[in-house]
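pipeline/complex-builder :: batch 7 item 3
reading input block
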Amino acid sequence: MSAYLRMGELGQCLDIFQFGPDIMATVWVLFIFLNFDLLLKTGQCAETSGQVLSITPNSQEQVEILKNVSIHYQTVLWQPVSSDYIKEQTQVHLYVPANSSQTVNDLLHRHSITYEVMLSNADEIIEMQMRNDSTDPRSGATFYQRYHTLEDIYDWINRTAKDYPNTVKVILVGSSHEKRPLYALKLSLNNRPNKKAMWIDCGIHAREWISPAFCLFFVHYSLLFYNQNQAMTQILDNMDVYVLPVMNPDGYKYTWTNDRMWRKNRFPKKGTPCIGVDLNRNFDANWCTRGASDYPCSEIYCGAFPESEPESQAVANFLRSHKDSIQIYLSIHSYSQMLLMPYSCTMDEAENHSELYEMVKQAAENIRRYYRNIYTYGPGAKTIYLAPGGSDDWAHMLGIKYSFTFELQDRGRYGFLLPPSHIQGACNEALTAVKTIALKVMEKSQASTSSRQTV
Ligand SMILES: [Zn+2]
C-alpha cells in the first residue's frame, strides 16, 4: 500500500498525467526503475495537495517533536484526537495542508522521523466528496451513496416525512448555537401500545461525514425493507426508532464551507480566539476529568459546564423525557472500525458489562462473517483511551442500559475522507451491528417479560 501511494505521489511530482495513457505507462515504468528509490528517500517535491501522514514515533524525543508539530504547525491531528495522547510505538495520523507540507516534511526528515504518506491527494478527495451530480438522471438511485450538504439533508427530512405521512414524524428537539433546527425523525411502523424505542444520533463530530450518511441510509433502509427484510421487520414491529441525522449542524455546515477538518460545534468562546466545544465531552459523565480539556482551543474542549451547549442539552433533554421507552442508545462516529460500549469516562466496568460485551462481540462477528471486515470492540476507555463527558456513558448512567458508540470505516486509509464509493459498504456494516444489537435486546426483554409472567 505504501509503495502504491508513493507512486501516486511521485506521479504528481512529475505531472505525469499531462501525457497520453500509453506514454504515461512507459514513463511510469522507466521512472520507477530509475528514480523510485532515490525519490522515496528524498521525497522532494513541492506539494500541491494536502497530505495525510502516518507516523509511529519510536522514542520519547520523537513523541515530543510530533506533539510540537501538531500544536505549532498548521496541521490537524486525525489520530489520536489530541496531542496529549501521542505516545511511543502508536500510530499517529496527521493531516498536513499543502502550504505547510514542505516545512513539516523537512522537519520530520531533519529529526529522522520516518513516515508513510497515507493520502497524497487529500484535496482531490475532498473535492470528490463534495461533488454532487444532481443533474445526473441516476442521482435518485445513488442518493445514499453520496455525501450531502446540510440544506440537502433538511430537504431530505421534509421529503421523507411527506412521502411517509403515516410512519414518519419530524420532531424538533432543539436548535444549535447558530439557531439551526435539530430535527429527529421518529419511525413508527405500527400502533402497538407501550412500544420500546431506539435512539440513533449521527454527526456529533462535524468532519465524520460517514455518520450522517449512515443515518440517512438507515431511515431509507428501514422504510424500504419493512416487510421485506425479516430482521428489520421484527425490529420495527417491536420498537420505534428516533433518528437525529445531524446533531452538530453548525459544525457540519462549516466543514462544507470553510474547513473540512472541523470537529467541534461553533460556540464562540468570549475573550479567546477559540471556537467550539467538543459535544462528545459535554455530557454529565465524569465531565471534564482526564481525557477532556478545559482549554477552549483544544479539540476535546469540554465546555463551561455539563450540557452547556444547546446541541448536547437538546439531546439530553429528549432522552431524559423519553427514558422509560428508549431502551437502546446509539451514537455514530468515525473512523477506526470499533463497536464501543460504556464506559469511556472511567476504567470501571459497567454493571451490565458482560451483557454489553456479548452484544458488541456478536455484532463484530456478524460484520466479519458477512463483509469480511474487522471491527474491534469493548469498553471505550480500555479500547481507545479515557474520554469523559460522552453521550453514550451519560445515556447509560441515565438508565438506558444498552448504550453504544460505533466508529465506522475505515482504519485510516482514508480516515475522515472516506470516498463516496465506500459509503454503501460502511453503512451495511453498521446496519449489521444495529440489527444484531436490537435483536439481542428484544430477545432479552421478551425473555424477562415471559419469566415475569411465569412467576
Ligand atoms: Zn467522533
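note: The chain has 14 helices and twelve strands.
queue -> next item
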